[in-house]
Structure formats: structure tokens, C-alpha cells
Amino acid sequence: MSILVCHHITPRWIWGINSLTPGQLRNFLATAVEQGIHFVTLSQYIAKLDEPAQKRVALTFDDGYSDIETIALSICREFGVVATVFVLPLYAGKYNSWDVNWFGQKIRHLDWPQIGKLVDAGWEIGSHGLSHRDLSRLPETDCAEELRVSRQLIYERSGNWPAAIAYPFGNVSRKTVQLATDIGYRAGVVSSNKFDGFFSKMTLSRIGVYRFDTRRLFVQKCLGKNKQIVHYLQRGIDFCSNGTVVVKQLIPTQWDRIRASRE
């Protein structure tokens, strides 16, 4: 089975391929559920990793955009689906200034009351770092701070310690994995299979769900079919997404400004 990752769920046009319309999400879930696929949180998925393969899929959402609560939650409820959302505590209730935001398109993140509604609905909250910086490129102290502070804030505001980390941009290193483990994370997800260091629950690969996907392709992704084709497609998308890393390295993040003001 698979771990899937979505981003925006919105009826309006967003530059890029990461957004799905509400109709797309509804159609995807309806088709998958009709074929006996069962969607669970990441922790529920990991708890049964050693059991015989079943039609069990972990549905995840990265970045923690507000449309997850305002749109995706009600659609998922229609089909009895729960999911895991990886949030950015520093940007709770704020716009995604961490991103390049081509053509001035900005998207609002979940605020803490919205995150609470997801928790009440049985969804899992994970960490996506503090400010969406590429952890694999940070000095060890900065990387540890991103991992530790984000985990602490999620606990303080939601009442639950996040069990998992979705490494921003899907990038990870042995150092990052060790730090995340030491800080208390029990699972981690990467993009595709790009981390070749070793396999563990701290480097689980995911498959992206995109605007160009069809119902058939979505089901194939759920069932882990055509893995090689999907893998190389995901690698190409991951390569393009790293362009954001390069651009944003030239622009101070909100967390950079906060840390500078303390010094």
C-alpha cells in the first residue's frame, strides 16, 4: 500500500500542480472507497506495516493550509476518511510567505482553532518543521531548533505530541534523521525514494497527488501499481520543487528575522 500526500484543496486556480479542486478530491476518494481502499492516519498505517498487505492507504496533507479544514475535512467525512496534516507552527493562521508565491498568490495556513477541529475529527497532526526550511541544508543547531520548537508548539497548542515529521521539500540526511529521532519523533516521511541512506520508519516514501491525476491514476497510486513510472515522475517533480529552496535561500524567512532580533 501507499502513503499519499496532497497540498491545497481549492476551487480557485493556483499556480503550479499541487492544488486539487474539491470535485477532484471527492471523485478520487469516492472511486478509491468503491474499490475497497481504506484511508487511515500515518500512525495507524505504521502500526500495521508488518501485517499482510491490505488496501490500506495513509492520506497526508503537507503545509497545513486552511482549506484542509474549510473544504477537505467535510469531503473526507463523506467517505469516513481520516488523514494526517503536517503543519508549520510559526505560520499558524498566517499566509505562506515562506514560499516563492509566483504571481503574488498567497495561501493562508490553518490557525490553532482549525487544527483543534481536525484533532476532534480524529485526524493526526504532524510537524512540517517550524518554518519550512530545508532541514538537510541547515547547520545542526538550526536543524535541531526547527525540529524541537515545532514539536513543542504543536504539543502546547493541540495537547498532542506529534509522532511524525514530514521533512520540508522531502529532503533529508542521516544527520536530520538522527536529530529527529533523538528529539522524539517516531516516524518521518520523504519524497519518493530519494533518500538512499537506509530504510526505516523515519524515511518512509510518499507519492504526491496532483492536479493532472485522473481517477484511475489516483487508484493506481493508492495500490502501489506502476511504481517505476510513478517513481520517476515524482523524482522530476521533486527536482523542480527544489527550485523553491534555492530562491528562498536568498530571502530571509520570518524565523530568521525573529532569531536576528534576539541577537
Number of strands: 10
Structural domain count: 1
Query: Which residues form runs of ≥5 with pLDDT under 50?
Result: none
- Helix run count: 9
Task: Return the CATH class.
Answer: Alpha Beta
CATH superfamily assignment? Answer: Glycoside hydrolase/deacetylase
Structural class: alpha/beta
CATH 2nd-level architecture? Alpha-Beta Barrel
Mean pLDDT: 87
- State the end-to-end CA separation: 48 Å
Labels describing this entry:
single chain; 263 residues; alpha/beta; TIM Barrel; eight-stranded parallel beta sheet; two-stranded parallel ribbon; 9 helices; 10 strands; 41% helix; globular
Describe the structure.
This protein is α/β, with parallel strands linked by helices. It has a single domain (3-262), classed as Alpha-Beta Barrel (TIM Barrel), CATH 3.20.20. 41% of the residues lie in helices and 15% in strands. It has helices at 22-34, 42-47, 67-78, 112-120, 140-158, 174-183, 215-223, 227-248, 254-262, and strands at 3-6, 8-9, 19-20, 38-40, 56-62, 84-87, 124-127, 164-166, 187-191, 204-208. The strands form two sheets. Strands 1, 4, 5, 6, 7, 8, 9 and 10 form an eight-stranded parallel β-sheet that branches. A two-stranded parallel ribbon has the order 2-3. Strand 4 (38-40), helix 2 and strand 5 (56-62) form a beta-alpha-beta unit. The chain is globular and about 45 Å long. The protein starts with a strand and ends with a helix. The mean pLDDT is 87.
